Amino acid sequence: GASLAVSTFRMNLLGATNVAQNTGSLSAALGIVRYAGDKNQDIIATQYKVLTLTGSTVARTKTSAGALSFAASGQLTVDTNDTLYVSTGSLDLATSTPTLINSSVIKVAGNATFHGGITTAGNFYYAGTSLQTIGAVTYANLRLGATGPKTFPSGTVAVRGNYSIDAGTGARDYSTGTFQFAGTSTQTISGLSETFYILQFTGAGAKNLSGSTMGVSRFDVLSGSGVVTNNVTTVTLTNLTNVSLTIAASTELVNNGTINMNGDLQNDGILTNTGTIGVY
Question: Looking at the DSSP assignment, which residues form a beta bridge with residue 219?
Answer without folding.
Answer: 199, 245
